Amino acid sequence: MTMISKKKLALMAMMVMSLGVTSVSLAAGPVTTGNPYGLVYANAITQNEKGQVNIHPVHYDLDGRTIAANVYTPKNYDPAKSYAAIVVAHPNGGVKEQVAGLYAQKLAEAGYVTIAADASFQGASSGEPRHQDMPYFRTEDIHGMVDYISQYPGVDKNRIGALGICGGGGYTLNAAKSDKRMKAVATISMFNSGRVRREGYMDSQKDSVQERLKAANDARQKAVETGEHSISGHVDFESITPERLKSIPTDLYREGLIYYGQTHRHPNSTFDYTTDSLSELMTWDATDHIDLINVPLLMIAGSKADSLYMTEDAYQKATGTQDKELFEIPGATHIQTYYVPKYVNQATAKLTEFFGRTLR
Fold first, then answer.
1. CA-atom Rg of the chain in angstroms
2. Is the pTM value of this prediction over 0.85?
């Protein structure tokens, strides 16, 4: 992990507070994607063609919330046949049309039925207040994807795997602790949201935990009294200068702003989260009881990612399974595993090998 001075980390924390409490922005990307399904990744499906991978926008109920999802079916899909399936959880701030959709499509190309869904309270899924980001609901979203895909025509409910990316990786680990319908679990660039919200990125904010918890409690009380939910993490993608972007010392946040704000921008994607969510996020950790995962586990991360320490920590603590592997992609940073072809291809090949072995 790249060593960064505490002074620079403190500056980074003040600037972006886990992807921004102050307004930072980039040259604006398009507010519409131009793709009929809203997909923003390279080589995305533009129309369903017979005999090819197809995409199927769906909606389903989850505890009274309407979840918006995309199901991908493989070439020559036949509902009378039997298929393994994989649920894909998106990063914090992301939506199903970005990197989660990319990997869902890649895995469908490898023969799987896949699903990527927007988290509750986010994207095109329903739920109030908007932008609530709590571990219980993010975990339940993954259980809900398993619920839905297990009943999809042609899916073998005994051959379901899970893939979580970034924050979705941490929540996928959490879901896999108890959901034994998942027969194999994989993560890409896993991000432990609880640890980062509590201790800061690269553990840079340990000395301000109590103050930030107090701010979260104050935000909750404000919501009780006024009905208004304060927002943290807001990023104004319209106005950042290249000079200010260069001043961000970590690859994850600097490259994340470019990915989400410019090159892969989607109108439903935002870093906003309700400030009172922190009261739950800061008392949660993706690695708590991780030894309950007793199925094959693959954790993928870039060798140059400054977030690699979170994957390494979770991998070490995942003692409940002997079938586990930490696969580092040489030269890749965290965000580069989202879109750079040579890194995506390496991750896809490893995932295909892993799920091919574990979901036979």
1. 19
2. yes
